[in-house]
Amino acid sequence: MRIDVLTLFPDSFKPFEESIISRAQKKGVLQINIINIRDFTKDKHKKCDDTPFGGGAGMLMSVQPVYDAVKSVWDKNSKVIFPSPSGKVFNHEKAKEYAQQEHLIFICGHYEGIDQRLIEIFDAEEVSIGDYVLTGGELPAMVIIDSLSRFVDGVLSKESLNEESFSNGLLEYPQYTRPQIFEGLKVPEVLLSGNHAEIAKWRKEMAEQKTKRVRPDLFKGEKGED
Ligand code: 6GU
Q1: 164 and 150 assigned to the same domain
Q2: Which atom of ligand 1 is nearest the CA belonging to 131?
Q3: Average pLDDT score over residue span 136-150
Q4: Is 65 near ligand 1, meaning CB less than 6 Å away?
């Protein structure tokens, strides 16, 4: 999958040079290009912000550099995403859906946002990462890209996807590693039993209890009920 990220702050994307996302890029299953919107400005002072019509606090990103930056990477198979607190809230299902696309373009907004016509021209999907406001679209773009990458073939093993939180509608069960007793606290006996059926049953119970306690909004009982 190819992902082009348009931003005024390309250095914000350094985290993609680490760990799983870096490995996926080296393997060739993921290609992430970070593009500096400022490289597209025609303003002699390289200015990339402008005042909103109608007045009000703050500045918008200038239309021309953002438009030209998108045009430089867009084709008919591209899906354009605009991270914004005014969008629909991103979740596990959206991550899976985006992972099926062949080309994504992220426009990272700064200041008070972008001109509405850019959203219309490129049919951009506005997506938020939660009910709070951040200073720019870079962190949300990174969150969304990190999360969708996990569903791109070749990035992770199939097992790691099946056992994680949300994959079965439940939060993940507690996990333990060595030693068997740490600071006086013991690993639950069942995990040492070697009885895989009992272990699976215990894990399911723990996942259900945790989901009921922490996220009652997610808990709908057994699959199929409601
Ligand atoms: Cl996508 N952008 C900004 N600036 N703030 C947010 C957000 C996005 N999602 C939640 N808060």
Answers
A1: no
A2: 10
A3: 98
A4: no
208: domain range?
Answer: 159-223
State whether 140 and 168 are in the same domain.
Answer: no
**Predicted structure pTM score:** 0.93
CA distance 107 to 115: 12
The CATH number for 82's domain is 3.40.1280.10
Q: Are residues 18 and 111 in the same domain?
A: yes
Domain tally, the chain: 2
Whether 179 contacts 167, CB under 8 Å: no
Residue 225 has pLDDT above 80, yes or no: no
56 lines ligand 1 (CB under 6 A): no
Cα–Cα distance for residue pair 152/154, rounded to 1 Å: 6
SS3 assignment, position 32: strand
Q: How far away, in angstroms, is 132 Cα from ligand 1 center?
A: 7
